[in-house]
Amino acid sequence: MINDTLVELSRWQFAITALFHFLFVPLTIGMSWILVIMESVYVITGRQIYRDMTQFWGKLFGINFALGVATGLTMEFEFGTNWAYFSQYVGDVFGAPLAIESMMAFFLESTFVGMFFLGWDRLSKRQHLTGTFVMALGTNLSALWILVGNAWMQNPVGSEFNYETMRMEMISFSELLFNPVAQVKFIHTAAAGYVTGAMFVMSISSYYILKGRDLPFAKRSFSVASGFGIAAILSVLLLGDESGYEAGAVQKAKLAAIEAEYHTEPAPADFTLIGLPNDKEMHTDYSVKIPYALGIIATRSLDKQVTGINDLKKGNEARIRNGMIAYSYLLKLQAGEKTQVNLTGFNETKQDLGYGLLLKRYTENVVDASEEQITKAVDDSIPPVAPLFFAFRIMVGSGMAMLCLFLLAFYFNAKRVIEQKRWLLKAILFALPLPWVAIETGWLVAELGRQPWSISEVFPTFLSVSNLTVSDVLTSMIAFISVYTIMFIIEMFLMIKFARIGPSSLHTGRYHFEQAANAPSGLRQQTLES
Amino acid sequence: MFDYESLKLLWWALIGILMIGFAVTAGMDMGVGGLLLFVGKSDNERRVVINTVGAHWDGNQVWFIAFGGCLFAAWPMVYATAFSGFYFVMMLTLFSLFLRPLAFDYRNKINSPRWRNNWDKALFVGSMVAPLVFGVAFGNLLEGVPFSFDKFLRVTYTGTYLGLFNPFALLSGVVSVAMIIMHGGTWLVMRTNEQVAARSAKAAQIASLVLIASFALAGAMVARTIEGFVITSEINTTALAIPTTKHVVTELGAWMHNYKLQPLLWSFPALGIIMALIAGLMARAGKGALAFIASGLSVTGVILTAGTAMFPFVMPSSSVPDHSLTLWDTVASQYTLSVISIVALIMIPVILLYTTWCYYQMWRTVTVEEIIQNNHSAY
Questions:
Q1: Which of A43, A141, B239, B244 could cross-link to A105 by cystine, CB 3.0-4.6 Å?
Q2: Is B137 inside any structural domain?
């Protein structure tokens, strides 16, 4: 049987490396379009300040991009190194979007990012702008293909188990691509990236405005970011990916856990604003509820029910028992008894094979599982309620707070009085971490909410690991934590340094610290050095 | 649309093409990174070296990403077995690769000799570990790797990590590093001038000689002392991907069988050696472009030599030879292969087109004067 500690460590390592990678990617996704907007204005109007904006924000983009590239390599390695049986069991389906991503998107992004940084003097204005656009397009296409892969893990359409090759095999690529979960996930995640980029530019611009430095530069940057941001935050909130939660039992379990809805409520269900989920007694303590809101948010209707955890478990128990039958047929087929009876029996039950595999945590043979083991597997079949409940509320709360900031910023910016609203500028500056809070908790909601599955209803997470030793994974995890910490410190050091210097770091002679009268000795020294 | 047998062969070729693409492009900038400390003495000279590849290293690296992604999709069992089996070696490579994006992007951000020297060393490590490890890994593939499958096709690696660094594998590592240094050296001869170009020419010549010697020695060992693998059961090329049902034996010198059956294959090792010789001579004569082309062909020849010797094996098992992975039985389903074939056959030419355009736009001899002039915009 598979070692529980190995599974836990493998999961932690994956979560740490994915969450870390995801600190940098959304900013890249969002800022790439902001750079396109700034450079387009430069090409159309020919005004130097927009070129300076593109180059300065591009500098910060580059500092972030390097970490995104470096930590992305880990994801490429980790499916093979730490999730070898996952790769064997679902590689036929899951590998394809990754392969296509590299050929269709990542080449584009990475080839043209070089042109963006170093091609200013070698390309014509239009060529360079086209290059920047292609880079942004590549970045976003890359996100699309990764999310097509991820959506298949959430809602595995277009595929079938083949008992001879012992793996999931693709039967319809178009179903994979047009997976409803993929559509909502892409829009939600890409727009979250746009919000991150907008918030980043807006916050740092607020800092310059508050300091009274480089005002024409800062206010123009602020305008671009607040306009882009308001469109983005509305897309994230209005097209949140709840609408994908109707697809399949696992998404339903995720939704029930997010809401800590232990018992099915009559439609339309209330939304629990805040409370303390209590797994033992199966209800939420101290809850504050908004009537009808959950039903409307989750099902986009007044008459459809949101299924509670209790009812989901009952359904899962039946499927686990059916999965045991599927597994017994699989054993017979593997032993070479390919009789009509066994084939028909397997085909009739194989949609529940994954549920049967949940028992492998407790008994190698599955078919001999005791009632107690079945009960344990049923309990496993629901994701942990409290972390999802809170993560979701932190995510939505951050989103709402950012919506307010973007609305105010957009309004006062349009009225051209943003400079006088120092309280707002300060709030925006200090709100800089919010998009990251939302994104990281959003990742938790999506991926923790998928548990106990690596592929929903098909393949349990604990079976997915490589046959490694606990010390193998512990060693690599400690190495990841140490090295990533060092990388993060270096990145933040550079990011803060250049954000503080601002456009003076371009050495054009036009900005604050290069006008001798303004230069305090410390920063001036730094500026002249770099 | 395509029959399964052709698709399997196509993907053997495509994985090979991606590997060659990786060695010829990213191999070049890794060679440049490996030479950085030795051919660039001053900060400006080092910036010359880095700026010859500054705009391209990231795109080049995607050949490796694409190689990994396609391995996952087309040969999921090889991806699973190799990456988990070589766990620590893979982690070592991964951690060394972290250094490259950071070194390239961060080095010029701060004008301090200590900061820049440290990033130069990081770039050296980041550029040399991967070619060494990939060479060592290839050596191990030729010798066979101890792994086997259970009845659910879950793979277990039974070797030690240190066992991967045996004499033949280390020799393969030398072949790989020499090849990459030669390739980076000829690139610098072509794209730089004066002292940097002269030092690079010297490095390329030495590397080409080391490559010829180590490659020939490795070839002799494959013929005389290494046990190759042979499938003794009948091969069903259209069968489903189940790698555990065939019968395989090991045999001294068996990797030479394909060369006996098909003498034309000798053109690959010949290409590897003759082109390395030409690359060295051209570098000596200061003809950078010719040297670089010859070097690229030599790299191609070396990889094809190893690949065709093992055909149809891709990852033989030394502990349970019957479980060896071959291009016939380690593959994705026919449907998946069809889908990714269409993408690859369309996208690879497109990638080559725009990559060439970018190289063309950035083409020039990078000089110290240029670096001084563009002090703040260059890498």
A1: A141
A2: yes
Interstrand relation of B313-315 and B325-326 (parallel, antiparallel or unpaired) = antiparallel
Is residue B51 less than 8 Å (CB to CB) from chain A?
yes
Rounded to whole angstroms, the Cα distance separating B196 from B49 reads 8
Q: Does A14 touch chain B (CB under 8 A)?
A: no
- Domain assignment of residue B347, given as a range: 4-373
Question: Hey, is the C-beta of A158 within 8 angstroms of any chain B C-beta?
Answer: no
Among A257-266, A496-505, B105-114, the least confident range: A257-266
Q: How many CB atoms lie within 10 A of CB A415?
A: 10
Residues of B (319-348) whose Cβ lies below 8 Å from A: 332-333, 335-336, 339-340, 343-344, 347-348
The tokens for A294 are 């959950």
Q: Which residues are bridge partners to A460 per DSSP? A: A453
Q: Which residues of B touch A506 (CB under 8 A)?
A: 376
Whether the CB of A112 is below 8 Å from some CB of chain B: the reply is yes
**Domain count for chain B:** 1
Question: What's the pLDDT score for residue A528?
Answer: 47
**The amino acid at A195:** V
The whole-angstrom distance between A171's CA and the closest CA on chain B is 7
Residue in chain B closest to A106 (alpha carbons) equals: B62
Question: Are B106 and A66 in contact (CB < 8 Å)?
Answer: yes
Point out which residues pair with B325 in neighbouring strands.
B315
Residue A530 pLDDT: 46
Instruction: Compute CA distances A241 → A184, A247, A291, B147, whole Å.
Output: 5, 11, 21, 42
* Chain A nearest CA to B82, separation (Å): 8
Report pLDDT digits (tens) over A302-349.
667 778 888 889 999 999 999 999 999 999 998 888 899 999 999 999
**Is B87 an 8 Å CB contact of chain A?**
yes
- B240 → chain A, closest CA residue: A165
In total, chain B counts a number of residues equal to 379
Mutate to test the interface with A, among B14, B25, B91 (most CBs of A within 10 A): B91
Q: Against a cut of 0.80, is the pTM above it? A: yes
Chain CA centroid to CA A469, Å? 29
Contacts of A474 in chain B (CB under 8 A): none
Taking CA–CA distances from A507, the nearest residue in chain B reads B376
Q: Is residue B263 part of a domain?
A: yes
pLDDT, residue A296, reads 67
B379 occurs within a structural domain: no
Distance CA A185, CA B291 (A): 49
Give the residue among A35, A68, A73 at the shortest CA–CA distance from A54: A35
Q: Where are the domains positioned within chain A?
A: 4-246+384-448+469-511+520-525, 265-306, 310-380
Position B334 scores a pLDDT of 94
pLDDT digits (tens, 9 = 90+) for B268-320: 999 999 999 999 999 999 999 999 999 999 999 999 999 999 999 999 999 99
Nearest to B65 among A106, A114, A483 (CB): A106
3-state SS assignment for residue A273: strand
CA distances from A300 to A143, A267, A274, A429 (A): 27, 11, 21, 35
Q: Please indicate, yes or no, if residue B315 is contained in any of the structural domains.
A: yes
Q: Which among A123, A165, A483 is the nearest to B241, CB-wise?
A: A165
Residue closest to B97 by CA, chosen among B62, B126, B65 = B126
**Closest to A153 (Cα-Cα) out of A82, A250, A241, A243:** A250
